[in-house]
Amino acid sequence: MSTFGTLFRVTTYGESHCASVGAIIDGCPPGLPLQPQDVQVQLSRRRPGQSNLTTPRDEKDLVQLQSGIEHGITLGTPIGLLVKNEDQRPRDYSETDLYPRPSHADWTYLEKYGIKASSGGGRSSARETIGRVAAGAIAEKYLKLVYGVEIVAFVSSVGKIKLPSYVSPPSQVEADDDEVVEDALSPEFVNLLKTITREQVDAHPTRCPHPETAERMTKRIIRAKESLDSIGGTVTCVIRGVPSGLGEPVFDKLEAKLAHAMLSIPATKAFEVGSGFRGTEVPGSKHNDAFGGISNGEDIYFRIGFKSPATISQAQETAQYDGTAGTLAARGRHDPCVVPRAVPIVEAMASLVIMDHVLIQNARKTAASHLPPITTLPPTMVKPTASA
Amino acid sequence: MSTFGTLFRVTTYGESHCASVGAIIDGCPPGLPLQPQDVQVQLSRRRPGQSNLTTPRDEKDLVQLQSGIEHGITLGTPIGLLVKNEDQRPRDYSETDLYPRPSHADWTYLEKYGIKASSGGGRSSARETIGRVAAGAIAEKYLKLVYGVEIVAFVSSVGKIKLPSYVSPPSQVEADDDEVVEDALSPEFVNLLKTITREQVDAHPTRCPHPETAERMTKRIIRAKESLDSIGGTVTCVIRGVPSGLGEPVFDKLEAKLAHAMLSIPATKAFEVGSGFRGTEVPGSKHNDAFGGISNGEDIYFRIGFKSPATISQAQETAQYDGTAGTLAARGRHDPCVVPRAVPIVEAMASLVIMDHVLIQNARKTAASHLPPITTLPPTMVKPTASA
Amino acid sequence: MSTFGTLFRVTTYGESHCASVGAIIDGCPPGLPLQPQDVQVQLSRRRPGQSNLTTPRDEKDLVQLQSGIEHGITLGTPIGLLVKNEDQRPRDYSETDLYPRPSHADWTYLEKYGIKASSGGGRSSARETIGRVAAGAIAEKYLKLVYGVEIVAFVSSVGKIKLPSYVSPPSQVEADDDEVVEDALSPEFVNLLKTITREQVDAHPTRCPHPETAERMTKRIIRAKESLDSIGGTVTCVIRGVPSGLGEPVFDKLEAKLAHAMLSIPATKAFEVGSGFRGTEVPGSKHNDAFGGISNGEDIYFRIGFKSPATISQAQETAQYDGTAGTLAARGRHDPCVVPRAVPIVEAMASLVIMDHVLIQNARKTAASHLPPITTLPPTMVKPTASA
Amino acid sequence: MSTFGTLFRVTTYGESHCASVGAIIDGCPPGLPLQPQDVQVQLSRRRPGQSNLTTPRDEKDLVQLQSGIEHGITLGTPIGLLVKNEDQRPRDYSETDLYPRPSHADWTYLEKYGIKASSGGGRSSARETIGRVAAGAIAEKYLKLVYGVEIVAFVSSVGKIKLPSYVSPPSQVEADDDEVVEDALSPEFVNLLKTITREQVDAHPTRCPHPETAERMTKRIIRAKESLDSIGGTVTCVIRGVPSGLGEPVFDKLEAKLAHAMLSIPATKAFEVGSGFRGTEVPGSKHNDAFGGISNGEDIYFRIGFKSPATISQAQETAQYDGTAGTLAARGRHDPCVVPRAVPIVEAMASLVIMDHVLIQNARKTAASHLPPITTLPPTMVKPTASA
What we know:
Chains A, B, C, D: This is Chorismate synthase. The structure is a homotetramer. The first copy, chain A, is α+β, with helices and mostly antiparallel strands.
């Protein structure tokens, strides 16, 4: 459905071309200083039209906070917010509407609902993410203020152009030779994860913080654009300062919720946390990944794969809804590459997951803290107190 | 928490060495023929001690159905079930309990709860998955009977030993050359996804359906075992026959729920659906991945990465809970490689996700079917009827 | 929290004097004809200022549908809606804000959140119910169109003035004499439950469909108003045409969800279904109440008690938040009696409960209908088919 | 479904005559001392066969804790528990199974599921409440230890025999005379609510703490029993020591959750909190009921109405499932009056509601406590600090 979270809960509404898109954020702690600008800054980072790498639509995306805040302080009650859909150009699409767009939700929406919005992507539209980004910005404000949590996402690949992260490239052979030196994160990449800031990310339109790679990505995106084609990529995100103890065994492990959150972003197809797929190749003796479903205070980083956008500007052979074959003409205004704009969406979803788990863990930890000290258990079963 | 699903809902309990592990499955449709054997077969596939590749514990894992079934037919009421913990050998662990095991949940459980089970992995133990496998077997019984759904998982890599799946190996260079021929799934692998059966998977102890690769995997696992080490791997799963229309925009897309489900399995670190990370490198013009959050009737396949098991039999330098440095001696009986046993767990979690979405879509589709036909909308907004 | 329902789910936001109040309705079946007027009619019935029996605020309460609907047909996606807060007069309250209003949420909101809205009742304000009424109107549209469900609430008492419903008045003595003839619903009241319409209810400003009693209620309310006092009352609601099989054992029985829904309406203190408290006095031999948690196709009726509004216009002795004693001066514009305006709110909450249960039962029933017929069970265990 | 609660969550399974009934309690704070006896004491109070007022079945109902506890301390992981169904006598019922029992769930279960358990009441059986009582006992252990919460329920009426609670009996006339002195709780009843203990309640088999009334109730129940009939009644429950701030606006007000919880108990038909229906008759000037959805630290009391048990020992005219008319012979062993045994069930459900709200409020309050002090708001918006 359209609700995410247990105690910090966001519910979104809105299609591409309806009156507005918006969200209700329920469960925000009372007493949090919050200005529209806190939300707007991330909405603006999400906004298209910021460079020649993205779609030229210039949406203003100004957030209107409706409730839950007075004098710049949250009340603890639901925060309603909305962004008007100013750029409503359904006609862009209507001429070729007889053909479901390949890889778009058109056909599956009809299968699911028996009806679909007249134009645009309905709920699969990228505009739906506005509500998430707004909600995430509120969660993040709290996490930063209270725990100093820092969440920074950046573009780590566009097509085959990759930010260098490992000492050696992926080994070329299907080696079963134990003597092969295992790959390891390069010191430069480890340092980048520890220090990267949003300012550094935004310094280049690609949102790749490695200037040389960013330039190559730019060329790749421009080539896709010029050839009326599109290209995918990956976003890497690091969360620093996460309090330990977050994540709920067994179904709501922290990675599981992050994976859920990230794969709910349009066009995502892959997720890995820490060393991910590459880590499956390393023996246990050389690789003790400490993260096991519950945060341990260390930085968390993960990577998300975005496929190349499906709506492209080339003509494509396809079939009408009723099966008649034909050619889907080029149309629409679409990003040749979505990953730069996906950066704030990834950050938002990460914020929502962490915030929800903070509240859930608060509930337990506070309840446990009121109980008398445990004195009857073997020492290995009980957390040593600070004085021990 | 320990509950998964909205309408088909499983709740599990149990640690490694308590009286029993079990589950309550709520929301099973009434009228489903169900015998203990339907559940037992998957529990037995999950059971350790099946070959010399896995831990020698010989647990019987006999399921005891408690409720919700009479005369071999489900009543629609909750199905309680449990498996006794027969092999309770906490002493195996106790001697070195002063040292949290690297990469185990010991330390984080103490951070989270302030207390942990005296031995074994608590809820992070692999025994917790018994409840899931049982629940998944029930879901799968329904899906197979009604829709002919087939869910088959298999081992696709162990360490660097990989089942060949692509025509060309991953391209070795960080190429930004558009002329490079894109990788594609090999016809053999496509055929395997379409036809693979559990019998074929179980034909080899590694559960890799490619005999030559399976042999290499076996050697790799034995080497890990002999060197008192461990190794990770990947499991690939295909779901055939999924009805179209499953998956809930926007937060509960089918991939998002699958990712959530898979990353909740112990030791998982990565998930990708379809072409996954590799698909991010392919231009949109060559790659229209049709799957977009809602099932479209085509096969769904995905891959999960499992890290190498953390508890190994080598001595390791570590620190006690109170910070005292020391050496963690070798101990315990553990799999050198978990992926062969993970196969039925992956299948179970996939079944749970599909079943839950079937019920949710039933609710909507049935409700919509009772409404009068829509005659006032543009034809592109409405699903053509069968006769059209 | 601020979300109600499992599959048909409403989430509301808004305080008395913020920018707007609104709701997101998620899970509405696609293909339902829906016009703003369908929602507006119930909002207008909820609106104050409709007679001299209620507060003179003349709010327009015009609903603005934001999403989920095109060309007057629902898309199956979330329906966002809002009503602007036009009458924002926070100053009315501010002068005496040092005193928490007796029986208002002021004090408890401070206890709960540590902060409260500057004026009005925050989320405990009656304006919060606008979102519910709108959502209920949408649910009701579906229920009426598909099942012919009719939901009609009316005022059954104001203070001690009661609509006559039983043949004999409540027996005056604490009789333990079996020979006492038991009370029974009067034929007139039974007939009223079977036939009452909203038009008949709205024929009198009190919304009591018994003219003589309505007149006495009017006098009672006017007396309360003139004496700057307030008075409570009860609302009775009948739901006709409910499909059988609704209600989820064991925690979400239909009565339990109705009770939850009704007691979530501001100022409610009591709920009874069918013969309710009175039915506890009748022996089983004379009283086989057929309704047991699951609907059986018969009409469902229940009664809700509303206490007298707490904010009155008389001066009252109270204490400031910091404990300083003092006198709370008369202030504000408030209904002397809320029950006439509560009628559409009760109807809305009833609609939400029934609609959610319809969808949940759809999910199960459709799933069961796809299974092969059960032939191996004793005949008493299986529902006879239509032909039997 | 069969799960209740958000953070303290109980899921139950089990029919009358299956292998066992049980529950999983998820979300119990870690570190709570818990012995089987803590649970058993309430299960035994729920058990039938305790006096000649109840059914003679002598079930042992010994609880078996399965998980979540070591050395008598909770681990914070799910607590699995079960009670074997020792007294399985399905034959008692089978002879007349062609007739659905009036007012029993037989018919509606068939409508809902298309299938029902071969005998007994399925999930509508009173045995299902075992899981709730066990869960409630665990919640209560925590609440008592940490907050000194005391939850005591007692029988307040059987048929028309009522515990005297008001100064004057319910006024006999449908008076609209303002001069009539309003009813008020008697000082004796107020004192009883403040001091009543479970020991006092259990001193008499009826569980009515007023000896004279208890004797009259006994006679009433015996008369029902001797005439092969049944009789209903009410249970009143008081919760003392509830921390302030519990209850979630707007849908999960504390009364709303209590109403939901109580109406989910089999045979309940009515709920009122505080002065309830009677309070609707009292003007606002004389009645400022302080409780408004959120606890304020004062005692909470409420009353639940239980209808007379439907399965009686008299022959009754009815129809077979297929419509054939006939006479349902007397049969079975059933309580002539369920309210004495309902007492611990009411206490359990009250415990579950309070405990869940404690955890939810913990989450918020702890989150808010970490924020910097609010200095920019008008003083009336912010809770005065302790030093103020």
